[in-house]
Amino acid sequence: MTLRSAVGPLVLAVALAGCATAVPYDPFQIPEPQFREKVRRIALAPIVVPPQLGVSEPAKLAFDALIEAKLREAGFATFPAKEWGEVFARVQKEAGGVFDPNTGRPDDAKIKAIWAKTAAEVRSRFQLDAVLLPRVQIVKADWRSASASWDGVSDMLASGMGLLGAPNAFGTMPALSLVVSIGAGDSETTAYYRHRGGIQVLEKLTPISERFSGKIFAPVPPEQLLADAERNRGAIDVALGPLLKKP
Length: 247
Fold this sequence. Notes:
By secondary structure, this protein is of the alpha+beta class.
């Protein structure tokens, strides 16, 4: 399966800027004053990234650290994602993993039980008000000529001489977005806050010499995914922006 064919329906309905008839998306799933009164201590789960992207563990840990730093900067007390991950891994090992031995597929009941036990242990060490679940999602980005825009950000498809001869066309391409959900930590509980911000495109314009043969776009190498700290911070700023602003 190619990354382009893996793009599924968008999970979040984010209002298009400039559309007079659209209702602006409100990331607060409960009234904002209630959220701010209720949530001051947040435990972070490790970021989840589609395995087919081949993103390294150090890159994931760096992204988790950026999210935690932004929350602490805004005055929230936090429980590190790295420690949550260590608890989850141990509990999962004790439970014999998450796969059904008969089918080889993930067992939903086991996953829920492992998650609940992890949350209970973390709660015994850190009196959390909520759990933040971050994940990277493959979405569609609108592109025109040499630029793509989606989920509050834009990304250039080439730089320098590569901008010459950019196609005078438009369409959609696969891109990555950070999806943030904050809730009680119970999978059965509705989230208190849910929002997302764009990270980077998954394709770039090819060198000019290759475009003459009809190859216009090429995949971004795996080692370049989630590797730009500035773009990662930008995605976090968009996804957590309404939460971090002063009420």
